Amino acid sequence: MKRPLLVIYKEIIQSTAFWGISLLLYACASGEAEPSPEADEDNPETAETGENDDDAKQTLVDIVNYARLNASGTATELFPWPREALDSASTIRDERPDTSWKIPEGSPSMLQIDFQPWLQAEASLKSVRLQFSGAVDRLRVERLEACRGKVLQTIEREELLPVLGFSGEKAGCLQIYVHTSGPAQLEELEIMAWVPETALWNTQNETSTGPNHPKSGVIEGFYGVPWSWTERMRMIDLLCDGGLGTYLYAPKWDPIHREQWREIYSEEEREHFKELISYASERGVMFSFGISPFLDFDTHSEDDYAILAAKTEGFLAMGAQSVTLLADDIEFALDTPVDADMGTLHTDIANRLLNDMKTVNPDIQLDFVPTVYSDDRVTSFDEGMAYLEALQSLDSTIGVYWTGPGTSNARMTAEEMHTFTEAVGRKPIIWDNFWANDGGDGFTGRIPLGAFSGRDALLVETVSGILHNPSIQGALSRLTLGTFLEYLHDPIAYNPNKARESAVNREMTFRIGTESDSTSDQEAVLFLMKLFDGDAQTQPGSREMETRIDSLTRSLRDDAACLEDASLLLPLFSRMSVLESEIHHSGLATDIVDELVFPLEKIRYEGEAGIALLKALVRKLEGEPADTELQRAEEALAKSNTNRFIFSNGKLHELFETVSDLVPLTHGGKVLQATTLDPECQTRNEWKWVPFAEDCRMHVFGLSGAEIENGQITWHPLHSGSYRVSAVCIMEGCPPSLGEITAEFVCETPGE
Ligand code: GDL
Q1: Protein residue whose Cα sits closest to atom 1 of ligand 1
Q2: Alpha carbon of 329 to ligand 1 centroid (Å)
Q3: How far is the CA of 297 from the centre of ligand 1 (A)?
Q4: Which residues line ligand 1 (CB under 6 A)?
Q5: Which residues of 83-118 are buried (b: 16+ CB within 10 A; e: fewer)?
Q6: What's phi and psi for 229, nearest 5 deg?
Q7: CB-based contact 173:119 (threshold 8 Å)
Q8: Are residues 554 and 546 in contact, defined by beta-carbon separation less than 8 angstroms?
């Protein structure tokens, strides 16, 4: 996979910063809107250009990487819930041959492939190649201008020919229906199409002045499915953009990194590593190859050391300028205690390895992750301190990682570093598990998107670097790391709210929908981060929603009639109920949208439950029964329970109990009725809708850029597709009157 660069590197003298001196001007972004393995100009097959009625030069590429993928359902082989990184439709583009879309049994299932959010137009198809395994009986492929719109062509397949040929027919969406009679998977999907060259490239060239914080960065060090090569490259882009200089590769679930550390990577994987290492070094980021051999390292023979040395030398040959030896989380596999002898053993191996590597590359950096990596572990092992003190004999250039007081910490202070520094004779490199969500190998669905917090400003002076081992979700981790960058730039002035905004801005570099305005995408991501506000210690949730529900419950208990919180909660729930659609139609990077498939489904159910509960509440305050609304809320909460992601720790269930227990009163207020929706929507025309007859405060969500004037919504659809909209109407009062309507409709561009 070759990624052309649109930028030239220039050498300049640059300023110093508190952790280092940078001398080069590095190019941070390749200028690529979305990496596409097939977009290879040297390959005649893919660089072919086709004539098209559009003016822009057309190029033939596999466009799967740019599409929005939605499956009607996902099965799972082992667990009660599907896992996004192993089972979901997006796994067909995750560069991992061992993952696939697990198609639910019982027919038919539908995979929708929407190109409109990316192109805001149609692509000219050349071929569609599908590779299934398992019990697939029949297939139907529909070609459409807009998802769920009018079908332009239907191809039925009794026999599963893998390639469907086209001759430039246009498609804004493909809907693939699969009939199965047993377990079945979609392993691969390739859609070759001509698209404007400009859609593949983003002309923005960002540069950075090189790492201001060479020893800080990111660790891919969690238990769970490792990041994809694309996610790694984007993470490196982010580090470069933020002036951070280290990427430690140490994913626990890469067998060749840890459990089968003696094995060597395949030719293909080595190519990926080589590319990643040079991608990183071109951007001023040091790629450190991590290897974790101590689960079963044989100290009685020379063989294991020889394997270790050969393997690390292999990485030196690929261009790696740093190696990290890991000995964390090994104690459960050993017969020997964690004590001074073990510390000495690790020290001797590390020193020997450093000396040997220096004969190949005198500038090589070696770092070490000890078995005793936190204050907690100093005390949890009888001889924890003795182990740590033995590390004093490590060569003085070897950096030693340390997670702080515990494995993951809500807070960390400069003073807390003294124990380590005294024992090991050097400042620690912080391995920060602030956003780690791999407890239970990430099966517990936690999306911790809280802004960086809880580290005092002086911490940076007492450590030699800070690296984050963030969440399993490599794309979403760009958002949280984006907040950490702000802390590093100015720990004293650090402000989490501002940092969140900067992180969101940085993410805009990775957008695919280059035509669309990024303002609404930024707002959507900010909203998302506040919905999943949390970290390793704090369960993700919307703090605003939790506070308002508590306050609403208190007002109801105290029989306070002016329930302002209800009017404030309604727009929040309304937006939650359509955020999925809003993000689908955004220009956000596909990898981030893929990671949100299940979390946003959860948010939709919770939003729907919240809306139904507020309607039930107002009904009861009218003195009416609210059985229908309560039943709707119950159904939405039951669906929410089928989704493993955690959101605000069941706060909506609490509200359900409160509203269910409320005896109907006659306080006033009413549920405002909505008008029906005129479904006619054409992308070339303004779309208008008056959802409520009353004169009220209105909000509309799901339609980016929509405006409200005198009770009328006006919206310019940017592209064709199926949209979900939620409009709310609030008449202030004691209590308020509330109305909400959610509707789905299709916008199409009529043919000439
Ligand atoms: C750990 C592991 C790390 C894991 C993290 C959070 C270190 C040094 N090692 O103990 O791989 O992701 O906890 O679960 O932190």
Answers
A1: 407
A2: 8
A3: 20
A4: 221-223, 252, 328-329, 369, 373, 403, 407, 431, 433, 436, 438-439, 469
A5: bbbbbbbbbbbbbeeebbbbbbeeebbebbbbbbbb
A6: -60, -35
A7: no
A8: no
pLDDT, tens digit (0-9, with 9 covering 90-100), for 145-200:
999 999 999 998 766 667 899 999 999 999 999 999 999 999 999 999 999 988 88
Cβ atoms 540, 689 nearer than 8 A:
no
Closest C-alpha residue for ligand 1 atom 15: 407
The whole-angstrom separation of Cα 661 and Cα 658 is: 5
Residue 10: per-residue pLDDT = 21
508 vs 505: CA distance, rounded Å: 5
C-alpha of residue 373 to centroid of ligand 1, in Å: 9
Phi, psi of 315 (to 5 degrees): -75, -35
Cα of 509 from ligand 1 centre, angstroms: 30
Helices within 532-626 (DSSP H only) = 543-557, 564-584, 590-595, 597-621
Break the chain down into helix, strand, coil percent, rounded to 5. 35, 25, 40
Could you identify the residue written with the tokens 């201001």?
212
DSSP 391-413: GGGS-TT-EEEE-BSSSS-S-B-
Of the ranges 6-10, 170-174, 543-547, which one carries the lowest mean pLDDT score? 6-10
CB-count exposure of residue 358 (10 Å: 0-12, 13-18, 19+): middle
Please list, in sequence order, all residues whose beta carbon lies within 8 angstroms of the beta carbon of residue 393, skipping any fewer than 6 positions away. 344, 347, 351
Q: Return the ∠ at Cα 655 (arms to 653 and 657), rounded to 5°.
A: 70
Task: Spell out the long-range contacts of 410-413 with Cβ–Cβ below 8 A and sequence spacing 24 or more.
Answer: 410/454, 410/535, 410/537, 410/538, 411/454, 411/455, 411/456, 412/454, 412/455, 412/456, 412/459, 413/455, 413/456, 413/458, 413/459
Cα(453)–Cα(444) distance, rounded to whole angstroms?
A: 23
CA of 659 to the centre of ligand 1 (A): 42
* pLDDT tens digits for range 442-452: 888 999 999 99
The residue whose CA has the least distance to atom 12 of ligand 1 is 222
Cα(436) to ligand 1 centroid in Å equals 8
Q: What's the CA dihedral at 554, 556, 559, 565 to 10 degrees?
A: 80
Kindly list the distances between the CA atom of residue 126 and the CA atoms of 48, 150, 277, 519, in Å, as whole numbers in the listed order.
12, 21, 35, 34
Mutation choice for ligand 1 from 248, 324, 329, 367, CB with most ligand atoms inside 8 A: 329
Q: Is 655 helix (H, G, I), strand (E, B) or coil?
A: helix
Please say whether the beta carbons of 166 and 63 come within 8 A.
no
Which pLDDT tens digit goes with each residue over 454-482? 999 999 999 999 999 999 999 999 999 99
Residue with structure tokens 């067998």?
255
Measured in angstroms, how far is the CA atom of residue 221 from the centroid of ligand 1? 7
Evaluate the omega torsion of the peptide bond into residue 108 and state whether it is cis, within 30 degrees of 0.
yes
Look up residue 94 and give its DSSP letter: S
Cis peptide before 735 (omega within 30 of 0): yes
Closest atom of ligand 1 relative to the 438 alpha carbon: 14
| 446 Cα: distance to centroid of ligand 1 (angstroms) | 16
What SS3 state is found at 693?
coil
By most ligand atoms within 8 Å of CB, the mutation choice from 375, 469, 535 for ligand 1 is 469
**Ligand 1 pocket mutation, candidates 407, 431, 434, 441, criterion most atoms within 8 A of CB:** 407
Q: How many angstroms is it from 312 CA to the middle of ligand 1?
A: 22
Of 433, 471, 472, the residue with max ligand 1 atoms within 8 A of its CB, to mutate for a pocket test, comes to 433
- Amino acid identity for residue 359 in this structure: T
* Cα→Cα distances 567→63, 203, 563, 653, 702, Å: 44, 44, 7, 19, 19
Its pTM stands at 0.92
